[in-house]
Amino acid sequence: MNAHADAGDAEAAPADLRFARVAIDVPAAQLGASLFDYAVAGHGGDGPLAVRVGDWVVVPWGRTRRVGLVIALCDRPEVDPARVRAIECVLDDAPPLPPAWLDLVAFAARYYHRGVGEVALPAIPKLLRAAPSAARRAGGATRGVRSSAERASGAPRARVSAPRARVSAFTRARARWEAQAAPGASSPEAVRGAPPLTPAQRSVLAGWSAAAGHAVHLLHGITGSGKTEVYLHWFAGVLEADPDAQVLLLVPEIALTPQLHAQLAARFPHERVALLHSEMADGERAAHWLAAVEGRARVVLGTRLAVLAPLPALAAIVVDEEHDASYKQQDGVRYSARDLAIAAAAQRGIPIVLGSATPSLESWFAARRGRYRVHALHERIGGAALPVVECVDPRGEKLRHSLAPRVVEAIDATISRGEQALVFVNRRGYAPVLACSACGWLSRCANCSAYRVLHRIDRFVRPGEATPPRSARGPARYRLVCHHCAAEQPVPRTCPDCGNVDLEALGRGTQRLEEALAELFPGRRIARLDRDVARRRGAAQQVLDAAHAGEVDLLVGTQMLAKGHDFRRLTLVVALDVDAGLYAADFRAPERLFATLMQVAGRAGRSGRASRMLVQTRFPGHPLFAFLARHDYAGFADRLLAERRETGLPPYRHQAMLRAEAPQLADAVGFLETARTLAAELDAAGYGVRVFDVVPMSMSRLQGRERAQLLVEADRRAPLHRFLSTWIDALRVRTPRPAWQLDIDPLEI
Ligand code: ADP
Ligand code: ZN
Ligand code: ZN
Asked: Which three-class secondary structure state does DSSP give residue 633?
């Protein structure tokens, strides 16, 4: 991107660069264009605007106006100059976009076969990418917006009778950040300061600090080995070495941010930490984003979307829990934040650390090939042992609420000692399906190929008090909810098909488990954490705080409990209903299950007390459990890699998935069949690309639309991408065309 340098010195665009190439958020693959040319000169021959690469501009788009980003300047438009419209104005108080970020966005657009605008603009907070109203601009009193007309010498400004100096979204965002608490709050941790690193931690840190310039470091550290502490020390060094430098910490879950935010704020009392995630209120998000983008915040913490923040002085990146599937965006541009973070680090020539107790196979493979440098932490801080893992086979046992006697006894013994137990089941709600035992009716969703899940409607109970048994809580009310389209309905009193009054809840989710535990362990304090609980503002934090404070005997929950938390008194973990993950159709299911179980196991025994993990499974002989019992991630990963090589799966092959959806399955399938024929005509095989059969998606119906997919794969990435470009160009001109999109490196097959 040296156009910036070329144009940077001149106030106005040189006379021969009269056109700007502007990125706008429109579906590029469908339109066939991703950048749009606008004239730099204003309407009616006004003087030229000073437009530079990286500027934010307002441009006319159809009958509307949009904010776009200037990606390049040129002397000739790609379309008929007579049809080129003019830039309306430049947003003067928007921050300039750093060339390194424009490079990243260009890379992402190429790699994911999307438009630059589709990548760049959604990455900007809504408030800042809304076009300021035309009326306001015409007022001329708005600071920070200059139009071509105004710039023409002495353009009359008094056309609007009462110009009101309205404040721009940028000014507001800046003021908001400044108004928030200044740094320097002295929390207990700030006073305590950083603990000295252990020798193992120190040698990891030395490895990162020694490498100058770009390097990808994979930190394989078991749970509780003090990975976070090494990140913090590393950041401290980077921030100290350069007064402008910025650091970025990516985490997979919003739920993990409050704890880390507090930790970062305490550790860097002179810095203000910018937080970036999708559940922040618009104004808050704009304030934090702008502070980061203008370098006023040097420490940036966020979820996947933070990878696309245009940080001007980014010097170090950490992707924590790098294996987590949440780093992949599942709609719009389906980017992997981990992969983009690596690309950003490479482009900027800076180091990046990927941390995990269970790295993704992609990263493990890269490390085995020597592309990433591996650093390991094999011991827990304080020498605490990992839990002893045992499988409990429920077959032939007298179960209580579907729990094996050994599980019940272990929980009882743990909480009787005053320690905590965690029961993990990766399914929220009361029961996954409601069934009629007389005729076989099931609570299918009318819009999706999925079952509506039975949910108990309950009021949030503040954690910390003894949980009353179900029988003492009065009659429960339930609803059926689809987890895919969110459709809800009351529970039918009788079977809709046969009128039978005995409808039966099959299986269990967190709510039912919580209820069962309250019956089994009367008088105990039970707290549940899942996405339903977390929906209530502050509730997740209340549960976690209560757990940390020792006000909870039994924790029940999903993955949300598995990640990151440092529960000091927890000595027993029970994992239930894991068998589906052993034999699922998705080839990534065992990798995910193993990672999840390692993570949950990692919550136990962190303070040094002896701890256990019980896995209730009907397949105790499955090899996955043997690796789990040895806490042998490397052994398991190497075995999976060997399998993937034999079967020709990622990371040995590269995949892309073309998906289509339409009201009728035949239309989606028909389009993909056309695409398949087209691929053959374009000689996919000549590129080394294998094209599979068109199949309905495993969940073929979603929100009333039928979905199908077509997988293509190749041994090498470059020819695959060359083929994809050609293919998409050819697909665009086909009609009829249902909604379609391309997913590069799909995680769900
Ligand atoms: P991980 O992220 O690897 O699971 P954490 O970073 O959460 O591990 O560390 C586990 C616990 O050990 C935390 O309570 C942390 O404060 C503590 N800890 C980490 N490093 C040190 C150290 N060098 N000295 C003392 N305590 C440490
Ligand atoms: Zn029935
Ligand atoms: Zn549905």
From this structure: helix
CA dist., res. 391 & res. 89, Å (int): 66
Give dist(CA 417, CA 523) in Å, integer: 15
The residues placing their C-beta within 5 Å of ligand 2, an ion, are 436, 438-439, 441, 495, 497-498, 500
Backbone angles phi, psi at 633, to 5 degrees: -65, -45
* Rounded CA separation 17/148 (Å): 16
Q: Which ligand is nearest to the CA of 442?
A: 2
Q: What is the pLDDT of residue 252?
A: 94
Q: Is 303 in the pocket of ligand 1 (CB under 6 A)?
A: no
Question: Cα dihedral angle (315, 319, 320, 321), rounded to 10 degrees?
Answer: -170
Of the candidates 296, 433, 385, 310, the one whose C-alpha atom is nearest the C-alpha of residue 611 is 385
| Closest residue CA from atom 13 of ligand 1 | 226
How far is the centre of ligand 2, averaged over its atoms, from the C-alpha of 504 (Å)?
10
- Please count the helices (runs of H) and the strands (runs of E) in the chain: 24, 28
Q: Is the CB of 201 under 6 A from ligand 1?
A: yes
Which parts of 393-534 are beta strand (E)?
420-424, 433-436, 453-457, 477-481, 488-490, 503-506, 526-529
Peptide bond connecting 81 to the previous residue in cis, omega within 30 degrees of 0: no
Q: Which atom of ligand 1 is nearest to the CA of 381?
A: 12
Please classify residue 749 by burial: count the beta carbons closer than 10 Å to its beta carbon, then call 0-12 exposed, 13-18 middle and 19+ buried: middle
DSSP state of 215: E
Higher pLDDT, 332 or 146: 332
Residue 698 neighbours by CB distance under 10 Å: 13
Gap from CA of 530 to ligand 3 centroid (Å): 20
Centre of ligand 2 from the C-alpha of residue 197, in Å: 64
Residue 78 contacts residue 87 (beta carbons within 8 Å): no
3-state secondary structure of 144: coil
C-alpha to C-alpha distance for 636 and 528, rounded to whole angstroms: 31
- Residue among 515, 458, 453 nearest 488 (CA): 453
**Averaged confidence pLDDT in the chain:** 89
Across 474-525, the runs of DSSP E, i.e. the strands, are 477-481, 488-490, 503-506
**Ligand having the closest approach to the CA of 703:** 3
SS (H, E, C) 445-468: CCCCCCECEEEEECCCCCCCCCCC
DSSP state at residue 530: S
How much is the pLDDT for 562? Answer: 85
Residue position matching structure tokens 């499955």 = 622
Ligand 1 center–CA 369 separation, angstroms: 30
Classify residue 316 by burial, with Cβ atoms within 10 Å: 0-12, 13-18, 19+.
buried
Ligand 1 close to Cβ of residue 221 (< 6 A): yes
Does 288 score more than 50 pLDDT? yes
Give 91-141 pLDDT, tens digit per residue.
Answer: 989 998 999 999 999 999 999 999 999 999 999 999 999 988 765 444 443
